Each structure stands twice: as C-alpha cells, then as structure tokens.
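[recover] target loaded
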C-alpha cells in the first residue's frame, strides 16, 4: 500500500492559502466532502476533535491530521501543500506546509493504523518531502506518492 492507493483524483490540492490551523482543517474537510461525498461539517468536527487530543504535526513541516468518518468504505487521503506554512503545534515547533489527511470508516481499526504508520514512514524521508514541495502539479504529487519508498533507506 502507498499513499497513492488512498488518493482519488481531486484529493491532491496545491498552493492552498490559509491563515491558521483551523482554516487548513476546514479546507481539508471541504476537499473530503467534494471528493469522497461526505459531510464537510462532520469531517471538520472529526479533525478538530483529533487535534484537541494532541497535534498531528509530526515535524519537519509535516502534519498527518486524521479522523474516523461515517460514509466511507475504506481509508481515504487528502494531500495538501500550503503556500505559506502555518503554526500547527508540531513536535519540533516548526510550522507546517505539507499535510496528508487520512479519513477512515468508524470500524477500520487496523486499516487506519496501517495507513497512519505508512504515511508517517514515507513523510520522514527528506528527499520525498523536498520533491513534494517542488512538485508543480497534483499529478506529479500523485506519482511521487505512488512510488515504493519502502526500499529506500530512511534518514531522519
């Protein structure tokens, strides 16, 4: 499984402008509603509830917000790159510009955890993060995320 396996056309959004974490989560919820056909308010509520439990900012400018969401039949992802990084309460106190948001059906326990672990491993790779920041199109981002990054050595 790659992040690309969880993406649908339209779920990669580049050059997003947002002033703060709440606005970023709102844009993610709107994309999820448009692409996955779920309720935007419920998606936002799930993301905000999860962030209240602790920031999903994992460091190096990356966040992996996630929520369980009724109406899905499998884990889905939204990938977003911000124009200007925003404060996210990350573990390294650096603002975030790359986000991979995951939405899982309420009953998808192991699938959700596997997807989180996979995304986390991939986004720890400095070379991949830089390529995602330089990608010029949503299609280019999708290609980067569908490649097998497991075989490459990981440098933290």
């Amino acid at each position: 499984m790659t992040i690309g396996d969880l993406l649908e056309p339209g779920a990669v959004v580049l050059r997003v402008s947002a002033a703060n974490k709440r606005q970023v989560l709102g844009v993610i919820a709107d994309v999820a509603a448009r692409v996955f056909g779920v309720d935007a308010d419920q998606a936002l509520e799930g993301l905000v509830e999860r962030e209240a439990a602790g920031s999903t900012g994992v460091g190096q400018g990356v966040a992996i917000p996630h929520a369980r969401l009724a109406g899905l039949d499998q884990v889905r992802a939204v990938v977003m790159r911000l124009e200007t990084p925003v404060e996210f309460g990350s573990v390294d106190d650096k603002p975030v510009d790359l986000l991979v948001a995951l939405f899982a059906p309420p009953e998808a326990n192991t699938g959700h955890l596997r997807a989180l672990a996979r995304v986390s491993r991939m986004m720890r790779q400095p070379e991949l993060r830089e390529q995602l920041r330089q990608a010029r199109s949503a299609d280019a981002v999708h290609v980067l995320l569908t490649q097998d990054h497991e075989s490459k050595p990981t440098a933290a």
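[recover] notes: Strands lie at 12-16, 57-59, 62-63, 66-68, 76-86, 96-104.
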